[in-house]
Design goal:
175 residues, alpha/beta, Leucine Aminopeptidase, subunit E, domain 1, 6-stranded mixed sheet, 5 helices, 6 strands, 41% helix, globular, binds ligand AR6, EC 3.1.1.106, hydrolase, Macro_dom
């Protein structure tokens, strides 16, 4: 963990040059709005093609799980698609499911021997997870996973699209 760099970046995750960017997808893996729409639009049809093959093999992707595809035309090498929980007030295992998104994405990146990964603020858009709570879960989940599972990963970037998330992550990573 000591040698893993955690950082925060403000901007568009489709522009980030890392081994894998994470997509905040839905269980169908067939695309949608928000960051999912942006990734498919910028990455091109190769990503959707591979998502369809995965669906044909395993059905949809359950909440908290993750799958990996090509990144198509993006500067990243891979896209790891994970499905965040819909916020329902906090008593429906949202915290555990959101942490699972980070764990499973990091696990898949490690299995592929990747060194750098960028996460969007999963579930904090359409899925309505309160941003402050989601940021705490994200940072804690990444730190605890990396501490418990030494791997190829050397760099984790939290990519924030809006000012509020950027402030939240900047503060959490300063601590
Ligand atoms: N780069 C980085 N972050 C972004 C970008 C971008 N280009 N665009 C939006 N965000 P959301 P969710 C931020 O709604 O809440 C989709 O339709 C955004 O500001 O994309 O997990 C899927 O198909 C927010 O902070 O994902 C699902 O159906 C964060 O990304 C559903 O939305 C997540 O917002 C998933 O909802």
């Amino acid at each position: 963990m000591k040698q893993v760099k955690l950082s925060v970046l403000k901007g568009d995750i489709t522009k980030v040059e890392v081994d894998a960017i994470v997509n905040a997808a839905n269980s169908s893996l067939l695309g949608g709005g928000g960051v999912d729409g942006a990734i498919h639009k910028a990455g091109g049809p190769a990503i959707l093609e591979e998502c369809k093959q995965i669906i044909a093999r395993q059905g949809g992707c359950p909440t908290g799980e993750a799958v990996i595809t090509t990144a198509g035309n993006l500067p990243a090498k891979y896209v790891i698609h994970t499905v965040g929980p819909v916020w329902q007030g906090g008593s429906k295992q949202e915290e555990e499911l959101l942490a699972n998104c980070y764990y499973n994405s990091l696990r898949i990146a490690g299995e592929k021997n990747l060194q750098s990964i960028a996460f969007p603020n999963i579930s904090t858009g359409v899925y309505g997870y309160p941003k402050d709570k989601a940021a705490e879960v994200a940072v804690a989940a990444v730190k605890s996973y990396l501490q418990q599972h030494p791997s190829s990963i050397k760099e984790v970037v939290f990519v924030c699209f809006d000012d509020e998330n950027y402030e939240l992550y900047s503060r959490l990573l300063d601590e």
